[in-house]
Amino acid sequence: MNQQYINLITNLFSLSLTQLLYKFQVYPAECFHQKSAVGLTLWSLKQSILSEYVDKLIQQLQDLLSILEGIEIQIKQDNKILTTYTINIVFNQENNEQFSQFDSDIQLKTLIYTLNQKLKTYKVDDKPKTFSVNFLSNGAETQNKGVQENLLQNWILIKETKKRETQLVNSLHMPNLDILVGLI
Question: What domain of life does the UniProt record list for this protein's source (predicted)?
Answer without folding.
Answer: Eukaryota
